[in-house]
């Protein structure tokens, strides 16, 4: 056999083994990640049935098993404090499915800021859709998730929204939450992120230059949520013969802090230094009952992780220099950022959200507490979500 032929065969053989090696590594990575991810979840959801079976039987099993689990975990057994949301309005049924009487939001009180919204055909036009002028539909009362019937069929908004913050563990939290049989993931990135509110609806040039043909619309956002699956599963309750208990959500951790495109909201005056309306106003107008989850991490640790993830620099020395420069130019951070420092200014952003949403509608947890007691933290979140 000619020498060149043998060399080709050797190269092909080498490539074959490299391919086998990479596939094996990927497989091991998935197995290890799955084991890490579901360690506490297996304890919590042992015996989870296929959702094609009767969901209600599992919900009853879950409720009975929580008392056993809580007996070894005082924190998980305690009621969620006012710092994590007010649960005083919970109601229940014999079927263990929590139904809020105000879930349909027929009696939703229009806030003063909503009354002041200008909706006119002669209003300022921008690339972003005018969501403050979107006419909110009446949500179906026999659905736990906010859904309604439209000319295109059943449409659904997310029941919950992990609003932040980047590099605090939101991906891990979302993946664990979607192991609950009542929670559906979405069709977005990692089955978690839609990038709608802060980025894609503005065709955000920083991250999507040349990749987005047009700005994402609310209809595009709704396409991310599987309304047909929500519709598919029904149970019988005291109030409804066919109640739909499934809920869906998403986790976009940039939504909490990134208001860089506020000038593109039609009701804001681009000549002013500060916005009148921000992302919380838009979300509240479109989905007033949405449950918000906020995960906070030590701000310096979070910033350094975000710094490396965003390739702003490569080591702690560069990080220190860039942070000092950012602090010096903090007043211009929306124009030019040398680090993602603004995401760590928690109190400033939280005040913006609390101007719009009541405190009981926002579940706040520290990453450090979540890491110490993942299962107990999940139980608190599920209670906040009324699952």
Main β-sheet description: 5 strands, parallel
- Enumerate the spans where pLDDT stays under 50 for 5 or more consecutive residues: 27-95, 333-339
Structural class: alpha/beta
Report how far the terminal alpha carbons are from each other.
69 Å
Radius of gyration based on Cα positions? 24 Å
* Tally of contiguous helical segments: 14
What's the arrangement of strands in the largest beta sheet? 4-5-3-6-7
Describe the structure.
This protein has 387 residues and is an alpha/beta fold. The chain has 14 helices and 7 strands. Strand 1 and strand 2 form a beta hairpin. The longest helix has 42 residues, at 3-44. The radius of gyration is 24 Å and the shape is globular. Residues 27-95 and 333-339 have low confidence and may be disordered. Residues 73-92 are annotated as: Disordered. It comes from Potamilus streckersoni.
Secondary-structure topology with pairs:
Elements: H1 3-44, H2 55-70, H3 74-77, H4 112-115, E1 147-150, E2 153-156, E3 160-164, H5 170-177, E4 183-184, H6 205-208, H7 218-222, H8 227-232, E5 247-251, H9 279-286, E6 291-296, H10 299-309, H11 316-328, H12 346-354, E7 362-366, H13 367-372, H14 374-384
Parallel strand pairs: 3-5, 3-6, 4-5, 6-7
Antiparallel strand pairs: 1-2
InterPro entries: CS_Sulfotransferase (IPR052654), P-loop_NTPase (IPR027417), Sulfotransferase_dom (IPR000863)
Organism: Potamilus streckersoni
Biased composition (Low complexity): 73-82
Considering the chains and any ligands shown, give keywords for the structure:
7 strands, 5-stranded parallel sheet, 387 residues, alpha/beta, two-stranded antiparallel ribbon, globular, 8% strand
